[in-house]
């Protein structure tokens, strides 16, 4: 663990990296970050929050600290999920500007210089979201989510550009805390607003935070502020991530609008009803209709691949989606059902995030 040297500049930028069993990724993540820090010539501290890892994360951070151009240290806590890991790092940050960065992300060399120039040019702007691309060299199992991404946000991804996200257009472009820069006070307010109930490992760690910031402050999405994400590389990791994605999907959208709540419940019920219908049709002697329904369901399931191809999704990612779809369906559905049970109160509770919300100064 490094410590500030006598006479060292006070950090202008604090970087918070939540890490769970990411020792194999951290050396390259921190090396890329170091290059970006040198390129930007910005006084920086980095706080790696070890979220109850069972690998040698502290040793990986200590080794990287020896050559890092700034203060690099590790904090440890029991495994409580990324939300509380990020919260711990934000609380410990010394700078007014905080960069949230995931442990598998390679910051592009000029990214920090670019975004800090933007901050200097527009001091009133308080939040910046990076454009993050998935590593094209990742194995197929890591590219599955490229297709859903190009379905939901294909219009933006076909032509990435500077875009200001607000409460009105929040769902029109990809965003996340994978690499996200904001003023510390803005992050604190948003995290307090989105504070989770229950098991913090089974709640959305970013959507409600970002929605709050977009509604109050606006978020600048800027392709010049960029990075590469390295996805999971094992089938086991993919399946566990898919299960959690189903649960977090519910937490992100349940109760935000009536239509979204209805869609979530329909997604949970549809497989059961379809299977029951097909079984009944076979039993009553209508196999042709049953097979027609099965073929229609498969065609509908593959439709996202067609849409993603139109939106210029890479061929390997489309192949990953087609190959991985049979493995994806059950764990994601199971995650949805789990999410509806865990977050059932969200379906009947009015969410402030969908209506007028108090400014930060009124919540203090």
Automatic annotation (TrEMBL):
<feature type="transmembrane region" description="Helical">
    <location>
        <begin position="289"/>
        <end position="310"/>
    </location>
</feature>
<keyword id="KW-0808">Transferase</keyword>
<dbReference type="GO" id="GO:0099621">
    <property type="term" value="F:undecaprenyl-phosphate 4-deoxy-4-formamido-L-arabinose transferase activity"/>
</dbReference>
<keyword id="KW-0328">Glycosyltransferase</keyword>
<protein>
    <submittedName>
        <fullName>Undecaprenyl-phosphate 4-deoxy-4-formamido-L-arabinose transferase</fullName>
        <ecNumber>2.4.2.53</ecNumber>
    </submittedName>
</protein>
<keyword id="KW-0812">Transmembrane</keyword>
<keyword id="KW-0472">Membrane</keyword>
<dbReference type="InterPro" id="IPR001173">
    <property type="entry name" value="Glyco_trans_2-like"/>
</dbReference>
<feature type="transmembrane region" description="Helical">
    <location>
        <begin position="262"/>
        <end position="283"/>
    </location>
</feature>
<feature type="transmembrane region" description="Helical">
    <location>
        <begin position="317"/>
        <end position="341"/>
    </location>
</feature>
<feature type="domain" description="Glycosyltransferase 2-like">
    <location>
        <begin position="14"/>
        <end position="130"/>
    </location>
</feature>
<dbReference type="InterPro" id="IPR029044">
    <property type="entry name" value="Nucleotide-diphossugar_trans"/>
</dbReference>
<dbReference type="InterPro" id="IPR050834">
    <property type="entry name" value="Glycosyltransf_2"/>
</dbReference>
<keyword id="KW-1133">Transmembrane helix</keyword>
<dbReference type="Pfam" id="PF00535">
    <property type="entry name" value="Glycos_transf_2"/>
</dbReference>
């Amino acid at each position: 663990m490094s410590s500030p040297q006598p006479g060292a500049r006070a950090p202008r930028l604090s970087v918070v990296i939540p890490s769970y069993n990411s020792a194999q990724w951290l050396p390259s993540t921190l090396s890329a970050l170091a290059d970006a820090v040198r390129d930007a010539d910005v006084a920086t501290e980095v706080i790696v929050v070890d979220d109850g890892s069972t690998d040698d994360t502290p040793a990986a951070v200590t080794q990287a600290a020896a050559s890092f151009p700034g203060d690099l240290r590790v904090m440890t806590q029991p495994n409580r999920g990324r939300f509380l890991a990020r919260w711990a790092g934000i609380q410990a940050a010394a700078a007014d500007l905080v960069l949230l960065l995931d442990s598998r992300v390679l910051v592009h060399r000029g990214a920090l210089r670019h975004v800090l120039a933007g901050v200097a040019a527009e001091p009133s702007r308080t939040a910046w979201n990076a454009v993050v691309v998935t590593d094209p060299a990742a194995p197929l199992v890591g590219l599955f989510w490229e297709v859903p991404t190009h379905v939901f946000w294909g219009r933006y991804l076909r032509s990435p550009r500077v875009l200001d996200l607000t409460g009105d257009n929040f769902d029109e472009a990809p965003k996340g805390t994978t690499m996200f820069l904001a003023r510390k006070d803005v992050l604190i307010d948003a995290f307090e607003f989105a504070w989770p109930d229950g098991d913090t490992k089974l709640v959305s760690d970013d959507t409600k935070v970002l929605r709050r910031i977009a509604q109050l402050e606006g978020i600048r999405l800027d392709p010049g502020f960029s990075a590469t994400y390295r996805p999971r590389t094992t089938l086991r990791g993919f399946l566990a991530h898919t299960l959690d994605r189903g649960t977090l999907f519910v937490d992100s959208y349940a109760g935000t609008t009536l239509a979204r709540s209805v869609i979530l419940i329909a997604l949970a019920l549809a497989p059961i009803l379809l299977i029951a219908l097909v079984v009944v049709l076979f039993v009553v002697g209508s196999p042709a209709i049953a097979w027609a329904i099965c073929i229609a369901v498969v065609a509908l399931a593959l439709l996202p691949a067609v849409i993603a191809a139109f939106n210029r999704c890479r061929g390997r990612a489309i192949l990953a989606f087609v190959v991985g779809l049979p493995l994806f369906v059950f764990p994601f559905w199971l995650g949805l059902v789990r999410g509806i049970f865990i977050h059932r109160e969200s379906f009947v509770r009015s969410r402030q995030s969908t209506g007028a919300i108090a400014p930060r100064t009124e919540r203090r």
